[in-house]
Design brief:
seven-stranded mixed sheet; single chain; binds 5'-O-[(S)-ethoxy(hydroxy)phosphoryl]adenosine; GMP Synthetase, Chain A, domain 3; 21 helices; globular
């Protein structure tokens, strides 16, 4: 593992401004000291910031790898995001929503509370949803998505949000794996001016087979143009069904360890895994980390650009900011619609003060040029965040200087669907920033860089591990305890993240990216096996191997090395059909950037594909040792064709 040398030599250290430090929520070491002195006591103090129906008896019960946090405690997540604010923030704006077409809707905390209660009552009384039932949400970024998430939480139904860019097959798999009883969708969503026909995709998924699914609730977002039909007895119009429901709904008291949600993410096998998060620990970390990392204050306008279909949207668009009583901006569409000014225009009009986005977006903004930004007054910004993939120091500096006007601290936050919340990030007023480095573990989090044999790396590179249980850790893989154990707990005694990282003499972590067969394309996790198994479903494909190649904007892009059956033509049309096939089967985010046809793949004599060699070809690196290959000459051919 390399990287540390570059970090040390190119190291540039940047401090937050004095004004920022003077006003910060946390400006001294007290949180770090509290956590180091008594870690469990520290977490108990964070949990006390929530409203509990019943106090816990024990902070942590740790039977590796199974953790129970705040054992015996009871609370409700929606109460903590809504009801707790009704006394002091009833008329405060909770959500400012902007549609891609430009319309704006705002919801006060009281409005949001009413809407959530109405839907919660509807789910209970008209659809007989009980605590523990699963509900799939397949929706565009509209307020009803946030409302649906909170309505599930209110009645103890477990939500499984499926990103609206996934295909019918991907949706069907997730509905069936979670055995969802009900699905909430919309007639469609807008994306770059086009309509994404969500309800039609739902119909296709159901046609494949969703035996557990009894009802579908459809938000009319597009209207007539969507040509949506509702199947009598199965499909219901959202606003019609909630109309008569009461706007007050007693929250279900949930055990701290009751599941709050399932969120599917890609792994190293073809089948996505349903990551399970529970209530008390998750919400404790979500609330605390939002306040500490983003320095969230009462009058901030906070914008996280992630879709609620990903974990970032769950924790840092819905639960974390709302638990803190924040004003959250939610935007439906893409940054380049109707033109590349859109984000800066939104920031200017809504006076956004905290902005949290992904490196892939930052690199795209950089490429689009500063002109778009200079046309707008974005001086309301006071803090910037990044998440999802490593950020190169060049993009970091551009973000800091051009977007942040060298005035806003940048928090580079490392975490995962599995960790539930931020694990590595500087606290903006306390730790100096080093571009490209996520910084220190948050107070309360213990991490290490380990050698493959499990020994510690004090300075240098290795594999990232979280070494003590934390409240928002995943509690399992839905329906698959074996996979939970083997993926995260077999390699080391402590949690194995699947990322390579370096640690420098200041204890700063720089996360280099996945070391397993998972790609990170524009911040989205995609398993190489998922794409491979889809490619071989295509009638003409005999065999396929998938690896990542560097991409200037997306970080990584997908390359498929494909062996065609003899009767199929290896031409450009077949390439285009293959790419389309993958996009249709999994979702557009998995569309390969490049297909290379080949008569053979580099294999060991026992027939195992040597992906290392394919990776080196795709990354333009030295190929390394090929003596163990069955036919080493294939390497030259692949290099020529790449
Ligand atoms: C990567 C997203 C470097 C990492 C919250 C991780 C990062 C995966 C960073 C999780 C970062 C996320 N620096 N890499 N700041 N943040 N990653 O589950 O490879 O969608 O394992 O969660 O994204 O992706 P996930």
């Amino acid at each position: 593992m390399t990287g540390i040398d570059t970090l040390l030599h190119e190291e540039r250290v940047i401090q937050a401004t004095e004004t920022f430090k003077d006003n910060a929520n946390y400006s001294d070491e007290s949180l770090y000291i509290e956590a180091k002195t008594d870690r469990l006591g520290f977490w108990a103090n964070r949990a006390k910031d929530l409203q509990w129906v019943k106090n816990w008896d024990q902070v942590l019960d740790w039977q590796r790898p199974n953790a129970k946090w705040f054992v015996g405690g009871q609370l409700n997540a929606s109460t903590n995001c809504l009801d707790v604010h009704l006394e002091t923030r009833k008329n405060k704006t909770a959500i400012i929503w902007e549609g891609e077409l430009g319309e704006v809707k705002t919801y006060t905390y009281e409005d949001l509370h009413h809407q959530v209660c109405k839907l919660a009552n509807t789910l209970k009384t008209q659809f007989n949803i009980q605590k523990g039932d699963r509900i799939t949400l397949y929706m565009p970024m509209i307020p009803e998505l946030a409302i649906s998430v909170l309505a599930c939480a209110r009645i103890g139904a477990i939500h499984s949000v499926v990103f609206g860019g996934f295909s019918a097959d991907s949706l069907q798999n997730r509905i069936q794996d979670s055995e969802s009883k009900l699905l909430i969708t919309a007639d469609g969503g807008y994306r770059r001016g086009k309509i994404v026909p969500l309800k039609q995709i739902v119909d296709e998924a159901i046609a494949v087979g969703c035996p557990t699914l009894k009802s579908v609730i459809v938000v009319s977002h597009i209207g007539e143009e969507s040509n949506t039909t509702l199947l009598k007895g199965r499909d219901f119009d959202y606003h019609t069904v909630i109309k008569e429901s009461s706007d007050s709904c007693a929250p279900e008291p949930m055990d701290s360890e009751d599941p709050l949600f399932i969120l599917y993410t890609s792994g190293t096998t073809g089948k996505p895994k349903g990551i399970v998060h529970t209530t008390g620990g998750y919400l404790t970390h979500a609330k605390y980390s939002t306040k500490a990392v983003f320095d969230l204050k009462e009058d901030d306008i906070y914008w996280c650009t992630a879709d609620i279909g990903w974990i970032t949207g769950h924790t840092y668009l819905v639960y974390g900011p709302l638990a803190n009583g924040a004003t959250v901006l939610m935007y439906e569409g893409t940054p380049d619609y109707p033109d590349k000014n859109r984000f800066w225009d939104i920031i200017e009009r809504h006076k956004v003060s905290i902005f949290y986005t992904a490196p892939t977006a930052i690199r795209a903004f950089m490429k689009w040029g500063d002109d778009h930004i200079n046309q707008h007054d974005i001086s309301s910004l006071r803090l910037l965040g990044t998440v999802g993939e490593p950020i190169n120091p060049e993009a970091w500096m551009w973000y800091y200087e051009v977007i942040g006007g060298s005035r806003c601290p940048v928090v580079d936050t490392w975490w995962q669907t599995e960790t539930g919340g931020i694990m590595l990030s500087n606290l903006p007023a306390i730790n100096p920033m080093k571009p490209g480095s996520a910084g220190l573990p948050l107070p309360g989090i213990e991490a290490k860089v380990l050698n493959p044999d499990g020994s510690d790396v004090t300075v240098g590179g290795g594999l990232l591990s979280i070494t003590e249980p934390w409240p928002s850790m995943l509690r399992g893989v839905w329906g698959d305890p074996g996979r939970f154990n083997s993926t995260y707990w077999k390699k080391f005694d402590t949690y194995y993240a699947g990322d390579g990282a370096t640690i420098d003499p200041d204890g700063y972590y720089m996360v280099l990216g996945r070391v397993d067969d998972v790609l990170n394309v524009a911040g989205h996790r995609i398993g190489t096996m998922e794409v491979e198994s889809t490619l071989v479903e295509f009638p003409g494909v005999a065999e396929a191997a998938v690896v990542g190649m560097p991409d200037e904007i997306k970080g990584q892009a997908i390359v498929g090395f494909v062996i065609l059956k003899e009767s199929f033509e290896p031409n450009d049309q077949t390439k285009a059909e293959l790419c389309e096939f993958v996009a249709k089967k999994i979702g557009a985010i998995a569309r390969p950037k490049k297909i290379v046809f080949t008569p053979d793949l580099p294999k060991t004599r026992s027939g195992k594909i040597m992906r290392r060699i394919l990776k080196n070809i795709a990354e333009g690196k030295e190929i390394g040792d090929t003596t163990t290959l069955a036919s080493p000459e294939i390497v030259t051919l692949l290099q020529e064709r790449f």
